[in-house]
Amino acid sequence: MSYSKLTRFSEIGKKIIAVGRNYSEHAAELGNAVPSKPIIFLKPTSSYVKSGQAIKIPNGCSSLHHEVELGIVIDQKGCDIPESKAMDYVGGYVLALDMTARDFQDEAKKKGHPWSLAKGFDTSCPIGNFISKESLADPGNAHLWLKVNDTMKQDGNTKDMIFSIPYLISYISGYFTLEPGDLILTGTPSGVGPVTQGDVIKAGLDGISELEFKVEQK
Ligand SMILES: CC(=O)CC(=O)C(=O)O
Ligand SMILES: [Mg+2]
């Protein structure tokens, strides 16, 4: 099946591979160094949540953060993909949130533990509609924004990524075989911050995709 033909994200759902600290201003705002290699982590597919459903604050979390990100949808199987061929493996895009239990993550970082609970809890990957490859002419220069209760919190551009989309696809495929339906979250620009029960998150990409989610206690 060709994912470039898809119009609904419900038909997608294999690995979710996320990149961390891919914008230097975001690395700085959390006191982290700019990475010399991409930082990669996984989110389970049970973390997907679609428009009309709520983001649920996970049990015991006291600091749930929003992170708006451009998602790349893969539509061909491949490993060790050269950077020059990487865009041939892209079937489309999706606007996504990498919801993060920041208190869990801070504790995990201190202890050298994995980020699985901080990044992978149910509803931690809200997504908008599938965006065809043709609709987003230059994914390396796309405006990303996020508002909480109509106040702008994140206002960035994918041109500020440290590692480009072709580089990320090539790098990741050196370790994980990419398969049709996989989603790569490309990291968040600066402005991340907390949300609480009752907040409404809205986000947009280049005037071609918008999403809206309410935050609820689990
Ligand atoms: C510090 C983080 O949570 C890394 C991350 O997910 C990002 O997008 O950057
Ligand atoms: Mg992120």
UniProtKB/TrEMBL annotation:
<dbReference type="Pfam" id="PF01557">
    <property type="entry name" value="FAA_hydrolase"/>
</dbReference>
<dbReference type="GO" id="GO:0005739">
    <property type="term" value="C:mitochondrion"/>
</dbReference>
<dbReference type="GO" id="GO:0018773">
    <property type="term" value="F:acetylpyruvate hydrolase activity"/>
</dbReference>
<dbReference type="InterPro" id="IPR011234">
    <property type="entry name" value="Fumarylacetoacetase-like_C"/>
</dbReference>
<dbReference type="InterPro" id="IPR036663">
    <property type="entry name" value="Fumarylacetoacetase_C_sf"/>
</dbReference>
<dbReference type="GO" id="GO:0046872">
    <property type="term" value="F:metal ion binding"/>
</dbReference>
<dbReference type="GO" id="GO:0050163">
    <property type="term" value="F:oxaloacetate tautomerase activity"/>
</dbReference>
<feature type="domain" description="Fumarylacetoacetase-like C-terminal">
    <location>
        <begin position="15"/>
        <end position="215"/>
    </location>
</feature>
<dbReference type="GO" id="GO:0019752">
    <property type="term" value="P:carboxylic acid metabolic process"/>
</dbReference>
<dbReference type="GO" id="GO:0047621">
    <property type="term" value="F:acylpyruvate hydrolase activity"/>
</dbReference>
<comment type="similarity">
    <text>Belongs to the FAH family.</text>
</comment>
<keyword id="KW-0479">Metal-binding</keyword>
<dbReference type="GO" id="GO:0008948">
    <property type="term" value="F:oxaloacetate decarboxylase activity"/>
</dbReference>
<protein>
    <recommendedName>
        <fullName>Oxaloacetate tautomerase FAHD1, mitochondrial</fullName>
        <ecNumber>3.7.1.5</ecNumber>
        <ecNumber>4.1.1.112</ecNumber>
        <ecNumber>5.3.2.2</ecNumber>
    </recommendedName>
</protein>
